[in-house]
Specification:
Distance between the termini of chain B: 34 Å
Number of helices of chain B: 19
Largest interface: A-B, 32 and 29 residues
Shape of chain B: extended
Oligomer: heterodimer
Strand content of chain A: 15-25%
Distance between the termini of chain A: 64 Å
Helix content of chain B: 25-40%
Radius of gyration of chain B: 32 Å
Structural class of chain A: alpha/beta
Shape of chain A: elongated
Number of strands of chain B: 15
Strand content of chain B: 15-25%
Number of strands of chain A: 9
Structural class of chain B: alpha/beta
Strand order of the largest sheet of chain B: 6-7-12-11-10-13-14-15
Chain lengths: 270, 571
């Protein structure tokens, strides 16, 4: 019995995830049919955590790839490597997932080059095959294989959007930041702070989100709030933690940075 | 907006989700000059907030123009927004005396600040440094008010004065409703009257400095003397007990009049006879173009639709024809290049060992992206553009040159925008050096096909003359320091103005302005639409002389636009 090739990708403990609606059931239904799933939503709202949680619930390994604009098809599919004996084929993460049966999660898929997303096409329709032309193999996807991709429609980057031929192969789930009270509960749990501070942090985030389209590309994400909460648990004052975790990373424009810093100052007694 | 105030719109949007209009309050000296009753010096000037007005649709905060401290501006804006968020509609003054009006203003300020602090606790630290009055400051009415304000805001300060203590107790006991506040102010005002406190309603100014003058709390008073009628000192000196209802009229923000009299910018002009710049010579007034009729707006929309094919060609030409700059990033493989693609080399080595034909694409392929331009289109809106366009077809022979220029600018702006460049459109006309008018039609952030752009473009009327140099200098001042900056003039001939009688004077100035622009790295080009006669061709040659032969092109018809525009922008 060979060792589990996907052992490293298995989740050992339950990743914390607070459901916002019926997305758990929706994902399970899509998984039962092995339909590829597209997750849309702003950065840091919990898309990756949701996929981890679902992989754990379904008991499947999760192969994740963070896509970037230089990600080539061979980075996903695999490549020939040289070693002392000659050449050796190494499966890429997508091939690994398809061969051995795993959820394959491509994070921020629009960042990848257009030719990269095309290799997904035969895998994401009824054929469920992955042609490996480099090593002359036609791989039939494992029965457990399912593809999940995420992207953030908020970035209005030029020429960065999914082609219709790609996006029409997916079923979609829309994500957003949780409602204030629920977001506070998430921040309190993940940042391990009391709920009163978590509520204040969520109020700060809502203030920054009002500046979306008015200078900011995105407001503060739930992830940023958890960072701020964790920093304040290290002993920083909430105001300093917010400046460090929220206002400084959010923007570079000096006027907007001043406005954000002043808004944080106004939000906490000092 | 002064640099210290530039963060304020984002600040108030984040905290209160409001977008009030910020305007400058003219210096106090100017108020005396306009005959207003307010005789305050600059230090006693207070911001003016307009919350509910039939004339001004959005709330407006007028900030004294000389304020430079960011913390003072921020405190003032936060206070005004607290009024907007927690304040009430304006009330009638009724039988309240000036002293009670002042007291009610103080209590209302304390109420809205307390409510704002409940939501945003950090605001207390923003406001507190401006409250400095304490027992050592004196016992006059104004100082007592300041001590009361500090007691209401600062939880660590207790004032020993019995009236201040009573006022605090009354304030805290009363429910936070306007009626209860009115009741409390009435009681406290009577106390002050019995203490024989002198109160000069005319000289009374709200303290501390960050607070607005509270004029927005009250409905306009029909019995108040008109602002133009000066009040003598004897009329205004009152004691709290005194009868009468001659409350202080609210200071009138004079932004509008001041704006009308003050140019947006003043530029020098080159005098070719003395070979020197004449400093501060041309006054430029910048304003939004008026809205055109719905009909004219619709016609422009239709023109955009009619020229869809031309627009597509323009866009393609711009995408393909503009100079490409080599970006730092590289992507993909190429058969030739400067740097090897390491993976491609590995693959080639593998192919060789496996006795296959190696792929020749072993170099990095440099990614080429078009350099985004920032084009400001300056549209000539002088009276000469009202002549019939020479190349109009018989079917639309009543089309003026201005119509053609309007359409060309719209098409150019649209195509530039679609090709990924930034573009703004402004129109200009001049009436002597004292009045060069620049009308904003489209900002860099506006869309070319939006209703507001079309309406403003339709609203541009041809009048006055063409003082190109001043308009160009103003355009350059907006673009200075920005990469890819480009000014594109759309005009109908040589510069001209009624106060210049030397035909070569303005051309020489234009030449000078264009040279200045190029020194700042701003490209200048011109699409000229000369008439068919010999004199017009001479004018065109003079323009070419001023701007350079390769920067000034004659446009003979709309079909010329793509390659002429490309020739302009490709430089």
């Amino acid at each position: 019995m060979p060792a589990d090739p996907l052992h490293a990708w298995r989740l050992l403990a339950e990743p914390y995830y607070a459901a916002q609606g019926d997305e758990l059931a929706a994902f399970e239904a899509a998984h039962a049919l092995r339909l590829p799933v597209l997750l849309k939503g702003p950065t840091g709202c919990g898309k990756t955590r949701f996929v981890e949680h679902m992989a754990w619930r379904l008991g499947k390994p999760l192969v994740t790839v963070a896509c970037h604009d230089d990600l080539s098809a061979s980075d996903l599919v695999g490549r020939w490597l040289l070693d002392a004996q000659g050449t050796r084929w190494q499966d890429g993460p997508l091939t690994q997932a398809a061969r051995h049966g795993a959820l394959c999660y491509l994070d921020e898929v629009v960042e990848a080059r257009a030719d990269t997303t095309v290799v997904l096409h035969p895998l994401t329709d009824a054929r469920r095959i992955l042609p490996l032309s480099a090593c002359n193999e036609l791989l039939q996807a494992h029965a457990d294989f399912q593809l999940v991709v995420s992207y953030n429609p908020g970035y209005q980057a030029l020429h960065k959007t999914l082609k219709p031929s790609t996006r029409q192969r997916f079923v979609g789930l829309e994500f957003n930041y949780p409602a204030a009270e629920q977001e506070a509960a998430v921040v309190a749990h993940e940042g391990q702070v009391d709920i009163a501070l978590a509520r204040q942090l969520v109020a700060v985030a809502e203030r920054t989100r009002r500046l979306k389209e008015h200078g900011l590309t995105e407001g503060a994400s739930t992830r940023m709030l958890i960072h701020a909460a964790a920093l304040s648990r290290q002993g920083l004052s909430a105001r300093v933690a917010c400046q460090q975790a929220i206002t400084c990373p959010l923007c570079d424009d000096p006027d907007l940075a001043t406005a954000l810093a002043a808004a944080v100052d106004a939000s906490f007694a000092h | 907006m002064q640099p210290a105030a530039r963060h304020l719109p984002a600040y108030v949007r984040a905290l209160w989700n409001v977008a009030p209009h910020f305007a400058r309050l003219a210096p106090a000296g100017a108020q005396v000059a306009t005959g207003s009753t307010v005789v305050d010096e600059a230090s006693r000037q207070r911001p003016v907030l307009i919350t509910h007005s039939a004339v001004v649709p959005t709330p407006t905060l007028y900030l004294p123009v000389h304020w430079q401290q960011p913390l003072l501006l921020r405190a003032s804006v936060a206070h005004a927004c607290a009024h907007l968020a927690h304040g009430d509609v304006p009330q009638p003054r009724g039988k309240l005396k000036p002293i009670q009006l002042a007291l009610l203003g103080v209590l209302e300020d304390a109420r809205i600040e307390a409510q704002a602090i409940a939501e945003l606790p950090g605001l207390r630290a923003l406001w507190l440094p401006w409250h400095l009055a304490d027992a050592s400051s004196g016992n006059s009415f104004e100082v007592l008010l300041q001590r009361l304000q500090r007691s209401l805001l600062d939880p660590h300060y207790t004032d020993p004065h019995p009236w201040v203590c009573k006022a605090c107790a009354l304030y805290h006991a009363a429910p936070a409703t306007p009626e209860a506040m009115r009741q409390a102010a009435s009681l406290l005002g009577n106390d002050l009257g019995q203490m024989r406190m002198p109160f000069n309603a005319q000289l009374y100014g709200v303290e501390p400095a960050y607070r607005d003058d509270n004029s927005h709390l009250w409905l306009p008073d029909p019995q108040a003397p008109p602002a133009t009628q000066p009040l003598s000192a004897a009329d205004t000196l009152q004691v709290g007990q005194a009868q009468g209802d001659s409350s202080k009229p609210a200071p009138q923000p004079i932004e509008q009049q001041a704006e009308a009299a003050r140019p947006t910018a003043v530029y020098g002009e080159w005098d070719r006879l003395i070979c020197r710049m004449r400093p501060k010579w041309c006054q430029v007034f910048e304003e939004d173009a008026p809205q055109g009729t719905a009909q004219a707006q619709q016609a422009l929309g239709l023109a955009l639709a009619r020229h869809a094919a031309l627009l597509a060609r323009l866009k393609r030409v711009l995408q393909l024809g503009l100079p490409l700059k080599r970006a730092q990033v590289v992507a993909g493989r190429a058969t030739e290049g400067d740097r090897f693609h390491l993976n491609a080399l590995v693959h080639a080595a593998i192919d060789q060992r496996m006795r296959r034909q190696p792929d020749p694409h072993i170099y990095l392929h440099p990614l080429r992206a078009p350099q985004p331009l920032r084009v400001l289109i300056l549209l000539d809106a002088s009276v000469s553009t009202l002549r019939t366009a020479a190349f109009a077809k018989a079917s639309d022979s009543n089309r003026t040159l201005l119509d053609v220029l309007r359409e060309s600018s719209l098409l150019a702006a649209s195509a530039l925008e679609q090709a990924g460049h930034a573009c703004a459109v402004q129109a200009f006309a001049s009436n002597t050096r004292h009045q060069v008018r620049v009308q904003r039609i489209k900002g860099f952030a506006d869309r070319a096909d939006s209703a507001s752009t079309l309406a403003r473009l339709a609203g541009v009327q041809g009048e006055w003359s063409t003082r190109l140099g001043a308009a160009l200098r103003h355009a350059c001042s907006q673009l200075r320091g920005q990469p890819g900056a480009h000014v594109l003039l759309l005009t109908d001939g040589q510069p001209h103005d009624v106060d210049v009688h030397d035909a070569r004077y303005l051309s020489a100035d234009l030449q000078h302005a264009a040279q200045e622009a190029r020194r700042f790295g701003i490209a200048v080009s011109c699409l000229n639409r000369p008439g068919n006669d010999a004199a017009s061709m001479d004018e065109h040659r003079a323009m070419q002389g001023a701007l350079g032969v390769h920067s000034c092109f004659a446009m003979c018809g709309p079909a010329d636009l793509p390659h002429q525009l490309l020739s302009c922008l490709a430089r």
